[in-house]
């Protein structure tokens, strides 16, 4: 018996050390990326929180939890280091209420499991908040004298490179190009594709409105209505990798639009009223998006975001994945962007990304499909405050770190 004791002690010690190692992995420190600061807050600091209705966000979170639950709890949350490992997030997901609660019950559930932290960027606490929606475009299966603009599917020679697989700090960043003599070279720009076409890409359908196609590509997805009345989804399938350029800024520098007129509606009206100049202006945005067609059904009625889940109108937010992981809650506070537009006090889930969404204080709200969604997205341009909701254990780590640093 005495000879067996050292083996028993060694086995117990190994189990203890393994447990400590696992605990350390699960307690991954809160380390925001450079330039981003998290300031611990309380719900009383969130304007409009007690009047908000987070039920749609709760539904969106349920979709994100299905994705978060597919990885081991010790795996890090992708994106910024402040979100730790998946363990605390999966624990919260496991306690999601089964029945749709009232607005008050939904708020209390978030309050029990999360605490807010305001996002700041080098001392600044206000960022840009815009909106996007699902546009509709007219299409035909075959070209004719009116419908002669091709809408392309993903080219066979398009190569995408996930840079995060080579350097963790490059997570969420991609390169797109094509091979030439065993070398990856840039893909043609919007102007080159419009002028010469793409023999390597299938034509999904033909449209008669270059401005509508431009905004379909800016939004990233939408719907096409064919002549017989049948409607299909048009989903994102890739892009040429060229830089996105906001043509509203170009029109503003030209003096064509004032800062107050730079909105989705203002830009589109200018393009439609200047048909000879519009192609040159749109070509200044070199980015070009490729699509795929999908049947429209109750199970496939909305676009799928970058996280791989269907987006929820008014509750899905596009963020910069270099700073923020997907699947986490954000509470956004923004004043009215236009006269007659209500202020925004809304809880949303980060489920998407976008070419124009860059930086820690930048968000894009998905508003859905239809005339109302188009109006909300087109009018939305506000300077707002962003609060991320962290599980209690992560928030406590953050608060202790701020206290130790004298913050």
Topology of helices and strands:
Layout: H1 4-26, E1 36-40, H2 55-68, H3 87-94, H4 103-113, E2 114-121, E3 127-134, E4 136-139, E5 149-152, E6 159-162, E7 174-180, E8 183-186, H5 190-196, E9 203-207, H6 210-219, E10 222-226, E11 231-239, H7 247-254, H8 264-273, H9 278-283, E12 289-295, E13 316-318, E14 329-334, E15 344-352, E16 362-369, H10 371-379, E17 381-391, H11 392-404
Parallel strand pairs: 3-16, 4-10, 13-15
Antiparallel strand pairs: 1-2, 2-17, 3-17, 5-9, 6-7, 7-8, 10-11, 11-12, 13-16, 14-15, 14-17
Explain what the structure shows.
This protein has 407 residues and is an alpha+beta fold. The chain is 29% helix and 26% strand. A 6-stranded mixed β-barrel has the order 3-16-13-15-14-17, surrounded by 4 helices. Strands 4-10-11-12 form a 4-stranded mixed β-sheet, covered by helices on one side. A 3-stranded antiparallel β-sheet has the order 6-7-8, with no helix packed on it. The protein is globular, with a radius of gyration of 24 Å.
Low-confidence blocks of residues: 1-28
**Rg from alpha-carbon coordinates:** 24 Å
Average pLDDT, all residues? 87
Distance between the first and last residues' Cα: 57 Å
Number of helices: 11
Strand content: 25-35%
Give the total of beta strands. Answer: 17
Shape: globular
Structural class by sheet pairing and helices: alpha+beta
Largest sheet: 6 strands, mixed, barrel
How are strands sequenced across the largest beta sheet?
3-16-13-15-14-17
Helical percentage:
25-40%
Helix/strand order: HEHHHEEEEEEEHEHEEHHHEEEEEHEH
């Amino acid at each position: 018996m005495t000879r067996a004791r050292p083996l028993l002690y060694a086995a117990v010690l190994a189990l203890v050390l393994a447990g400590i190692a696992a605990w350390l992995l699960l307690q991954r420190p809160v380390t925001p990326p450079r330039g981003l600061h998290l300031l611990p807050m309380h719900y009383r600091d969130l304007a409009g929180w007690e009047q908000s209705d987070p039920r749609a966000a709760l539904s969106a979170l349920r979709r994100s939890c299905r994705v978060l639950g597919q990885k081991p709890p010790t795996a890090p949350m992708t994106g910024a280091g402040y979100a730790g490992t998946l363990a605390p997030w999966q624990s919260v997901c496991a306690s999601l209420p089964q029945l749709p609660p009232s607005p008050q019950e939904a708020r209390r559930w978030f309050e029990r499991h999360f605490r807010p932290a305001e996002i700041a960027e080098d001392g600044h606490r206000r960022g840009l908040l815009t909106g996007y929606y699902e546009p509709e475009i007219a299409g035909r299966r075959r070209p004719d004298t009116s419908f002669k603009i091709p809408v392309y599917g993903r080219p066979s020679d398009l190569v995408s490179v996930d840079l995060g697989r080579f350097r963790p700090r490059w997570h969420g960043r991609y390169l797109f190009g094509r091979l030439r003599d065993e070398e990856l070279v840039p893909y043609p720009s919007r102007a080159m594709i419009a002028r010469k076409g793409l023999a390597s890409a299938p034509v999904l359908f033909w449209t008669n409105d270059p401005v509508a196609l431009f905004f379909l590509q800016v939004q990233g997805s939408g719907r096409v209505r064919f002549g017989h009345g049948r409607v299909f989804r048009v989903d994102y399938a890739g892009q040429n990798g060229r830089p996105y350029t906001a043509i509203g800024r170009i029109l503003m520098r030209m003096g064509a639009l004032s800062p107050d007129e730079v909105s989705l509606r203002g830009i589109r009206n200018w393009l439609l009223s200047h048909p000879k100049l519009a192609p040159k202006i749109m070509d200044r945005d070199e980015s070009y998006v490729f699509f795929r067609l999908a049947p429209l059904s109750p199970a496939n009625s909305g676009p799928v975001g970058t996280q791989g889940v269907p987006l929820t109108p008014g509750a899905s937010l596009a963020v910069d994945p270099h700073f923020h992981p997907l699947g986490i809650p954000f509470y956004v506070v923004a004043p009215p962007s236009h006269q007659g537009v209500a202020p925004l006090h809304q809880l949303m889930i980060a489920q998407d990304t976008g070419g124009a969404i860059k930086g820690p204080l930048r968000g894009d709200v998905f508003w859905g499909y239809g005339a109302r969604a188009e109006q909300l997205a087109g009018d939305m341009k506000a300077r707002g405050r962003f609060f991320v909701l962290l599980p209690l254990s992560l928030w406590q780590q953050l608060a202790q770190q701020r206290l130790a640093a004298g913050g």
